[in-house]
Amino acid sequence: MKKLFLLITALFLTVSSFAQTAASKGYLEAFIDPSTGMISYRKFGEITKDGILLIDMKTSALNNFVEQKHPDAAQMTLVEKERQDLDKLRQRILIQRERMMKPLPPMDEVH
């Protein structure tokens, strides 16, 4: 009986820790702001500061927006432009990271 109680307690603690982790994970929600006519994002929870992961989150939010809202042709144009801009930003970040990883040439000594 005591082992069963310990097993149930351990199971409860494990489930509650997973639920807490899932609830605190941040995510973005995309929407079209009617006042500006642009795509905006609402953030929920803690959001990463890594540029590539943030771009992935925005892309995922755009995909969810398209699946849930079924935007019209004008809104789809905005979504496609946003996707292209995110892809360009991703490429710039990757190029910048590549440059940072290359060793610098040795400095010329001044005599």
Major sheet: order of its strands? Answer: 1-2
Straight-line N-to-C gap: 84 Å
Which value, in Å, is the CA radius of gyration? Answer: 23 Å
Number of helices: 3
Strand content: 5-15%
By DSSP, the count of extended strands is: 2
Low-confidence stretches: none
Mean pLDDT: 83
Q: Helix proportion of residues, in percent?
A: 55-70%
Can you tell me the overall shape? Answer: flat
User: H/E order of the elements?
Assistant: HEEHH
The secondary-structure class comes to: alpha+beta
Main sheet record: 2 strands, antiparallel
Helix and strand layout, with pairings?
Layout: H1 2-24, E1 27-33, E2 38-44, H2 51-69, H3 73-101
Antiparallel strand pairs: 1-2
Helix pairs in contact: 2-3
Notable characteristics:
111 residues, alpha+beta, two-stranded antiparallel sheet, 3 helices, 2 strands, flat
State the gist of this model:
With 111 residues, this protein is α+β, with helices and mostly antiparallel strands. The chain contains three helices and two strands.
Could you describe the 3D structure shown?
It is a single chain. The chain has a domain at 25-101. The chain has helices spanning 2-24, 51-69, 73-101, and strands spanning 27-33, 38-44. The model has no long low-confidence stretch (mean pLDDT 83). 64% of the residues lie in helices and 13% in strands. With 111 residues, the protein is of the alpha+beta class. 6% of the residues are buried. A two-stranded antiparallel ribbon has the order 1-2. It has 3 helices and 2 strands; from the N terminus they run αββαα.
